[in-house]
Amino acid sequence: MSFSKLNQLGWSNLCFQQLSYEEICDENTCYLVLRITEVHRNRIVAMGLNGEQSVICGSEYHPISQNLAVGDWVLTELANGHYKIIKIFEPKNRVRRISNGLPQVIAANLDYLWIVTSANEEFNVKRLERYVSLAHEFDITPVVVLTKLDLFEDLEYFLSQMDHLDIPNLHPVSVNQPESLNTLQTYLYEGTSIALIGSSGVGKSTLINKMFRTTQSTKEVRESDDHGKHTTTHRQLFFKDENVAIIDTPGVRELQLYNAEQGIERTFSSIIDLISQCKYSDCTHTNEPSCAVQAAISDNIISQSHFDKYMKLLKEEESQQRRAVGAHAVKAHYRAYFKKIHSENKEKW
Ligand SMILES: Nc1nc2c(ncn2[C@@H]2O[C@H](COP(=O)(O)OP(=O)(O)OP(=O)(O)O)[C@@H](O)[C@H]2O)c(=O)[nH]1
Ligand SMILES: [Mg+2]
Ligand SMILES: [Zn+2]
User: Fold this and answer.
1) Is 101 in contact with 65 (CB distance < 8 Å)?
2) What backbone phi and psi angles, to 5 degrees, belong to 223?
C-alpha cells in the first residue's frame, strides 16, 4: 500500500504509527486503509486511493454512533467479498455532542471547524460562544463564517457582539457576492479537513455548493424567524479536488457540549487567570474580600456580562455531566437486566 499517497485524503503520521509491521508488510492478506465518508444505520461508506468502498463493521464497534464518524480512518480486511473494519485508528480529534443523554461522535480528524451563522434573526452570540468553546476543547481551529452578507443592514452591529470572543478567523460572506468567498480559500490546502457546523438554514450546504460546485440539497428558511427546515439529514464527507475533505452536517437544534470545561477555559482565559489570583481558593467571586474577579469588574478590565456568561456556561456543563453519567448508569442497568433475562430464557429452552 502506498501510504504517502493517502496524505491527500488527510492521512497523517499519527495513524501510520498505529499500524503494526505485519499490517504494513503483509502481502497475503488484503488490507485496505480507508477514510469514512458516510455512516448510515445499515451502510457505511469510505474513501481510499481506489475510490469509494462500502465497508462493514462488526459488533465490537457498536453502538456505531459512539465509536465511528465521518472523517475516521479505518483499517479493513477483505473477507468474502466485503471490506470489514478491523481497526479504527485513534483520531487526532473527535467532535462529540450529547444526543438523548448519550455521547455521539459528529466528525473526526478535523483541522478546521467552520462555525456558520447568519446575520439575521438566527444570530445568537451565546450559541456562537458554545461553538467556539467546542472547537477549542477538541483542539480544532475555529473559523466563524457569517453568511448572508447581502441581507445585512448593519454589519457593525453583528461584529461588535463578537468582539469579546477574540476570534482571529472571522469571515462575513455571501453566496451572492462571489468575491466575498475568496478569503475562505486560505483554508483549502492539500490534506486539510473542514467540517461546517451551525443551525439549520444558515446556509452551510449553499456555501458548499457555491464553493465546491456540489449539489447538496438546500431549502429556503421560514420567514417569520429565519429558522431552517433541517434540509441536510446526514453528515457527509466529500473531497474537493481530491485533496481537501469537506463535511456538511445537518443543523443541530440544540448544541450540548460534551465535557467542554477545557474549551470554556480557553474562551474565557482572562477570567481563569483572574480566578487564580483571588485570595481564597474557594472564592465564589460574589462578595469575598480580595476577589480578583470582582476587582477587575469594578476596574472595567472585564465586563460583568462576560463573567456572567462564563458562570452560566460552567453551570450548564456541570448539569450536563450529571445527566450523562445518570443516563449511562440507567443504560448499564438495563443491559445487565436484559442479559440476565436472556440467559435465563436460554436455559429454559
Ligand atoms: N440571501 C442569501 N441567502 C442565502 C445565502 N446563503 C444561503 N442562503 C439561503 O438560505 C437558505 C438555507 O440554506 P441551506 O444551505 O439549505 O442551509 P443549511 O445550513 O444547509 O441548513 P440545514 O441543512 O437545514 O442544516 C436557502 O434558501 C439559501 O438560498 C446568502 O449568502 N444570501
Ligand atoms: Mg444543509
Ligand atoms: Zn474571587
Assistant:
1) no
2) -70, -35
Which residues lie at CB < 5 A from ion ligand 2? 204-205, 231-232
Q: Is 118 in the pocket of ligand 1 (CB under 6 A)?
A: no
Question: Using a 6 Å cutoff on CB, does residue 329 contact ligand 1?
Answer: no
Q: Determine whether the shortest distance from the Cβ of 236 to ligand 1 is under 6 A.
A: no
Residues 6+ apart with CB under 8 A from 300: none
In words, the CATH class of domain 94-248 is: alpha beta
The full set of domain ranges for the chain reads 4-88, 94-248, 261-344
Among 218, 202, 199, 219, smallest CA distance to 149 is for 202
Assign a CATH topology to domain 261-344: Ribonucleotide Reductase Protein R1; domain 1 (1.10.40)
C-alpha cell at 337: 437486566
| Chain segment 180-208, per-residue pLDDT in tens | 999 999 999 999 999 999 888 899 999 99
Which residues line ion ligand 3, judged by CB < 5 Å?
Answer: 278, 283, 285, 291, 293
**One-character DSSP codes across 194-236:** EEEE--TTSSHHHHHHHHH-------PPPTTT--------S-E
Lowest model confidence (mean pLDDT) among 22-31, 133-142, 242-251: 22-31
The CATH number corresponding to 4-88 among 3.30.230.10, 3.40.50.2300, 2.40.50.140, 1.10.460.10 equals 2.40.50.140
C-alpha span between 334 and 235 (Å, rounded): 30
Q: Which ligand is closest to the CA of 293, given by its number?
A: 3
Cell of 137: 476543547
